[in-house]
């Protein structure tokens, strides 16, 4: 049964990579995998590049001795079944663009990368769906939808490298949630593989199906702790006929919220994005040259709103957008507005929004939080968080930007006091009735604060799910929550 | 601790209702409940009305000896904890309007009714949400939304008696799924109580929250087998400025589908309903006088489409609707069209659609199926199902109507051969890549056919969930699936 050809050199490479006697288990996994799957299905020792040590966060983890790289669901199932039998823990890796450390390997883990599962079905025009394997990038799905005359509802900065498996597993959000919803709302069905290798397939993409328990939603946003999303059937939307965006300056966060309410009322479902750059972020982009000069609006000390519409009826949509913005200007909700007049303007304004990431990444010693807060308590949250930050480090610099249309702010602080700041900002978000992780997930890095927003009963329910679906805890162990509630990593809400 | 007052009369009533020695367990449950909760929290013996014997299907179950009726989440938790400790099985009852027998009591079960949990929060205008307890009716939510200037996205015929707990637990659908989605899409969060009495509360209603595993979706559409939905935070939509509907006659099912594609393209998100009455249903309504004469269009032998728009921009929406329908008429997609010109017309056309239910309920010996099928295989499904029905009973009469916009048809057959017909019609739906229960759920009545559309791995995953959340199987036991796969109730796909 077991084909030995190719095993010895692999074994030799592995012995050099993991020479200790405790690695017998790794060698057993590799023995099974190398005897049953082609050589491309695994990387060993020096073939494992440094990129497998983590995600888009600065902190890197252990270099995994082996990267398992299935190309099909059957290969994935075989790998999982072997690892489950041998109790071999795995870190799951997609595009490794996460911001919560979920894909950062811990000592003793092998990497399971979905990077070779790259098949993308043709668009099903009747059903307005497309089926993608886990390793297909978001950009590839967007392009395929576009080519078939459709639109995909989620967009995030990492579109070129993030992958559908990770997008589903982390319930990615991004810039158009207020129109299209989170990634969860784009999913018509998933194929998932459990730790024991069993495959759950639900790719029919029916808009209505109450035939037994829904299993799709178990895996959406699960961060890989319950099973591995190997394929997803994704919903597509009609391609917009009109797209336009605008940059506005508003004097305060209250004015920004008033402008949002106004645009929602006057534009309804035309409104597709409502992003904010706080004054310090816009000034930083200008100062550092992160967007091509001249900037569309001068640096004023105000708050900058990038808003967008997508419509189906052409010029009349564009007119409604301009009118709504001019009314806001007349009524003093905004002090200045520039509306895109060409696709070049349109792209330019979006690049300005994306420049906020480049600006933030250029700074050293920054700790970032991804919070969401109900509109009614936004101002209170910002005041309390600012006061707490000042109390911890009066030299701290705060840079805030993000998706105000969803109440979701990326709250970045430049200061060495990372842990104390996390306690302060995340507690303020929790006390405001908000989320400590609106779209980035919990992974390893936000786990200590999860109990600020989830009750002991909820955490116990998460553990029930983990034990039911991954009883030997081989899938992303220790991510999101620990199996034992008394673990030191779980803080008690102050 | 235990207050004995009131227990003895209760105990006496129960002894009369369930005199056997095996009912010691029921008396123990009632002992705990009657000592800790007010008398309104339970009905015993002759106080238990016949309505508790079932749902909206003809078949009635055992009369439960006790109906447990908590008024608050705390009371519900106490009741569940007691029943779990004593291993007392419960049938869960909301508005008892289901069509799959899920709320039909089996021998030995007590009823747990949510009918006294009736609190409805004020609308949260900032967040566009409302929080309802399980026993609030759908119509009460619709009315509260309307009063606050919002719209609730789901409507079904049972609106006046079905309740939010049941709507969430069965993922109700109805007439506007193509615009607003199923009930699942209306839920911003739930409070659920597990079999052991622990309460999982997620009622913040944040549009973006990836803080740990989502637990809401576990309970949506779970038909009560994993926990009890005690409250739901529901999303509201902007109230439409324009509503209009129209009745069209089309010559064939293919033409009906072409009309749907055409209206989707020309009306986009304006389109809010697309319902069909097959020729035999329209003729039956006319013949039986189930709609007030004169009917808006004569009986022609064609297929009747009731379609609706909801818009935000007034007369221009109405004009687009009329133009799209006139174009369809000009192009021969429809042979006759009548568009509502007043709210009286509008209501009248909807009453005509609802008359299909009255007509069907007036017939004896009818077995009904609630299937959905992908658009591309709809014609094939209808041909195959019709041939199979004829082969089983050449005198069978078939009546079809429903939500063609979602591929969801209510397929009703008048014939004594209920089981053979179920095998035939549900197999045809499954072979067409469809669902054997699009919106009604599985309950007791569709359970034998679940394995036509769900794999052994999926059924095993459902059992894992059941064992994890209700290890003593006290919540709706035997509904949806059996705990043991070899159970005779589970058919093998032919």
UniProtKB/TrEMBL annotation, chains A, B:
Question: What InterPro entries has UniProt attached to this entry?
Answer: FAD-bd_oxidored_4_C, FAD-bd_PCMH, FAD-bd_PCMH-like_sf, FAD-bd_PCMH_sub1, FAD-bd_PCMH_sub2, FAD-linked_Oxase-like_C, FAD-oxidored/transferase_4, Oxid_FAD_bind_N
Q: Which family does it belong to?
A: Belongs to the FAD-binding oxidoreductase/transferase type 4 family.
Which cofactor is essential here?
A: FAD
FAD-binding PCMH-type domain location is 60-239
What lineage is on file? Bacteria, Pseudomonadati, Pseudomonadota, Alphaproteobacteria, Hyphomicrobiales
- Does the UniProt entry include the keyword Chaperone? no
Query: Which protein are we looking at?
Result: FAD-binding oxidoreductase
Share an example GO biological-process annotation for this protein.
Answer: respiratory electron transport chain
> Which Pfam families did the record assign?
FAD-oxidase_C, FAD_binding_4
Molecular-function annotations in GO: catalytic activity; FAD binding
């Amino acid at each position: 049964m077991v084909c030995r050809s190719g095993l010895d050199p692999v074994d030799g490479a592995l012995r050099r990579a993991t020479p200790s006697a405790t690695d017998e288990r790794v060698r057993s996994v590799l023995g099974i995998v190398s005897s049953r799957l082609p050589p491309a299905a695994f990387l060993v020792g020096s073939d494992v590049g440094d990129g497998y040590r983590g995600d888009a966060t600065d902190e890197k983890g252990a270099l995994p001795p082996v990267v398992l790289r299935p190309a099909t669901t059957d290969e994935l199932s075989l790998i999982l079944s072997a690892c489950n039998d041998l109790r071999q823990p795995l870190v799951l890796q997609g595009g490794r663009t996460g911001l919560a450390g979920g894909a950062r390997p811990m000592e003793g883990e092998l990497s399971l990368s979905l990077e070779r599962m790259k098949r993308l079905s043709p668009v099903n025009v009747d059903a307005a769906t497309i089926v993608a394997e886990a390793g297909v990038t978001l950009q590839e799905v967007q392009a395929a939808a576009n080519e078939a005359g459709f639109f995909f509802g989620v967009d995030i900065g990492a579109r070129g490298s993030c992958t559908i498996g990770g997008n589903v597993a982390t319930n990615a959000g991004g810039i158009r949630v207020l129109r299209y919803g989170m990634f969860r709302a784009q999913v018509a069905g998933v194929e998932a593989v459990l730790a024991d290798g069993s495959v759950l397939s639900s790719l029919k993409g029916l808009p209505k199906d109450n035939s037994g328990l829904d299993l799709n939603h178990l895996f959406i946003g699960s961060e890989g702790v319950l099973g591995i999303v190997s394929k997803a059937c994704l919903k597509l939307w009609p391609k917009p006929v009109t797209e336009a965006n605008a940059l506005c300056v508003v004097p305060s966060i209250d004015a920004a919220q008033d402008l949002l309410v106004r645009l929602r009322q006057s534009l309804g479902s035309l409104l597709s994005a409502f992003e904010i750059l706080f004054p310090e972020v816009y000034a930083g982009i200008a100062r550092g040259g992160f967007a091509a000069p001249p900037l569309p609006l001068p640096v004023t000390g105000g708050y900058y709103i990038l808003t967008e519409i997508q419509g189906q009826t052409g010029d009349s949509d564009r007119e409604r957008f301009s009118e709504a913005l001019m009314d806001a200007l007349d009524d003093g909700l905004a002090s200045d507005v520039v509306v895109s007049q060409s696709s070049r303007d349109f792209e330019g304004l979006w690049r300005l929004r994306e420049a906020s990431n480049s600006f933030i990444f250029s700074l050293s010693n920054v700790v970032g939080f991804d919070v969401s807060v109900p509109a009614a308590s936004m101002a209170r949250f910002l005041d309390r968080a600012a006061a707490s930050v000042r109390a911890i480090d009066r030299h701290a610099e705060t840079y805030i930007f993000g998706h105000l249309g969803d109440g979701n702010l990326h709250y970045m602080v430049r200061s060495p006091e990372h842990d104390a700041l996390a306690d302060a900002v995340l507690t303020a978000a929790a006390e405001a009735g908000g989320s400590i992780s609106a779209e980035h997930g919990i992974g390893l890095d936000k786990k200590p604060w999860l109990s600020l927003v989830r009750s002991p009963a909820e955490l116990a329910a998460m553990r029930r799910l983990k034990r039911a679906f991954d009883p030997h805890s081989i899938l992303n162990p220790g991510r999101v929550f620990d199996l034992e509630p008394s673990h030191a990593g779980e803080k008690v809400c102050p």
